[in-house]
Structure formats: C-alpha cells, structure tokens
Amino acid sequence: MTIQINIAEAKAKLSELVARAEAGEEVIIARAGKPSVALRPVIAQPKAGKRRLGAWAHLGKLANPCLFLEPDPELEEAADGPIFPPE
C-alpha cells in the first residue's frame, strides 16, 4: 500500500510514518501535492559469521610470546639508536 502525505502533516506524524515505512508500506512525502521524496527502510548489512575459537591454533605456540613488546631492530636502525631508553 502506498500513502502520500504533505510535508506539513508529515512533520507532525514523522514517527508514525517511519514505523509504517519500516513495516513495508511505501510512504511518499509531497510538496504542494507533487511527490517529492519517498521514505523507505535502510537495508541492514548482513552480520559476519560467528567467530570460531582457536582459528589460529594450527600455527602453534609462539616461540617468544613477548616478542611484540621488544623494539623492532629495523626501526632502531632507522632512528640511529635505541627507541626505548636503556634499562
């Protein structure tokens, strides 16, 4: 079903018109009796699949689990010295 409504009336009934558009009705807003815009629901993006626990388990354990805390030797070389102050 399609409904056409003027702007002045649409201002007063906006929440009702949005609900009707979400329910599947075609809502046309007119200016001076001429159709101007149409209300329609936004199509939701599909949700990503469920996350699978242990997806990276096939790679095995890290040899050094604190490796990401150590400074990068390439960055130290580019900086011409240590990045972090010596302990």
Outline the structure in words:
By secondary structure, this protein is an alpha+beta fold. The chain has a domain at 2-39: YefM-like fold, CATH 3.40.1620.10. The chain contains 3 helices and 3 strands; from the N terminus they run βααββα. A 3-stranded mixed β-sheet has the order 1-2-3. It starts with a strand and ends in a 9-residue tail after the last helix.
Sheet/helix structural class: alpha+beta
Helix content: 10-25%
What is the name of the CATH class of the domain at 2-39? Alpha Beta
Regions with little confidence, pLDDT below 50 for 5+ residues: none
Number of helices: 3
Spatial order of the strands forming the largest sheet: 1-2-3
Strand content: 15-25%
Q: Choose one word for the global shape.
A: elongated
CATH homologous group name of the domain at 2-39: YefM-like domain
SSE ordering: EHHEEH
Largest sheet: 3 strands, mixed
Named at the architecture level, the CATH assignment of the domain at 2-39 is 3-Layer(aba) Sandwich
- Average pLDDT confidence is 87
**Assembly type:** single chain
Rg is 30 Å
Distance between the terminal alpha carbons, to the nearest Å?
A: 74 Å
Keywords:
single chain, 3-stranded mixed sheet, 3 strands, 24% helix, elongated
Short description:
24% of the residues lie in helices and 20% in strands. It has 87 residues and is of the alpha+beta class. A hairpin with a 2-residue loop joins β2 and β3.
